[in-house]
Amino acid sequence: MAATGTWQPQEQGFKEICGLLEQQMSPTSDNSQIWQQLQHYSQFPDFNNYLAFIFARAEGKSVDIRQAAGLLLKNNLRSAFQNMPLANQQYIKSELLPSLGAADRHIRSTAGTIISVLVQIDGVAGWPELLQALVSSLDSSDVNHVEGAMDALSKICEDVPQLLDSDISGLSERPITVFLPRFLLLFQSPHASLRKLSLSSVNQYIMLMPKILHLSMDKYLQGLFLLANDPAPEVRKLVCAAFVQLIEVRPAVLEPHLRSVLEYILQVNKDPDEEVALEACEFCNQ
C-alpha cells in the first residue's frame, strides 16, 4: 500500500477494505474482530487515502459503505492528519471537494462534516482550494453544489466561526466578508434546507459581529422578517433564536423594530411547533 505522488488504490486493498466495511454493517458480524482488522490496515500509511477514495469515488458501492468510509476517515483524521505525509494530506483534501456536489445528500453531508473537521485541525490558510470551491459552489446553478457548500460552511460556522473572520495571508479580505452576502441571498431560496443552513450560519456571528455583518445589519433584519412566517418550523425557530441573541448582545439594533419583534414573539408563542414556541419564550426571559 505504498503512497506515491500520483496515488492510486491497489485493487486488492480496495476490495479488502470495502469488504470489512460491508461486514461492519452486518447485524451478525463480530465487530471486535473487524475493528482489529481495520486497526491492522490503519498501520499502512495510505489507509486513509483508501477511505477517501472509497468515500468519494466508489460509485459502484452502496451509499452506506461510502458513508461508513467517510465517517471512519473523519475519526482517523482527528488523530492522524498532522502526522501524515503531505502528499496524503493533499490527496484526501482533493478527493473531498468534488463530493460537496454529489447527487446523494448523505455523501454531501458527510463531505461537509469531514471538511469541517479538517478546518478545525488545519485551518483554512493552507487550503486555498477549499475557499475557492465553496464560493464556486455557492454561486452554482446546481442546487446540490449550493447545498453541499452550505452544509460544510454551516458546520465550520458552528464549530470555528472565528476562523472565517480572520485575516489570511494571500487573501485581500476575510473569508466571512465573501460568504456572508451570499448567506443573506439564500434567505430567499425556495429550498427550506438552504434557508435553514444560511440563517443558522449568519446567526453564529451575532456574538462575534464581524464588520460585514455590522454593515449588513439592515439586510439581515429584513431577512429575519422575511423568514418570520416561514413554512419550515426549523427556520422559524432560527428566526426566534436570532432575535433572542440580538436582544441580549445587540439590543440597539432591534430598538427601531422592537414593536414588530414583540408582536412576532407573541404570535410564535402560540406556534403549533413546540420547539418554535419554546424558543420564543427565551426572548421573553431576556
UniProtKB/TrEMBL annotation:
Gene Ontology molecular-function annotations: small GTPase binding
UniProt cross-references to Gene3D superfamilies, sorted A to Z: Leucine-rich Repeat Variant
Domain named Importin N-terminal: residues: 34-102
Subcellular locations according to the entry: Cytoplasm
GO cellular component terms, semicolon-separated: cytoplasm
Single Gene Ontology BP annotation: protein import into nucleus
Entry keywords, A to Z: Cytoplasm, Protein transport, Repeat, Transport
Transmembrane segments: none
One Pfam match: IBN_N
Top-level taxon of the source organism: Eukaryota
Principal location class: cytoplasm
InterPro entries according to UniProt: ARM-like (IPR011989), ARM-type_fold (IPR016024), Importin-beta_N (IPR001494), Importin_beta (IPR040122)
Protein's UniProt name: Importin N-terminal domain-containing protein
Organism: Solanum commersonii (Commerson's wild potato)
Lineage of origin: Eukaryota, Viridiplantae, Streptophyta, Embryophyta, Tracheophyta
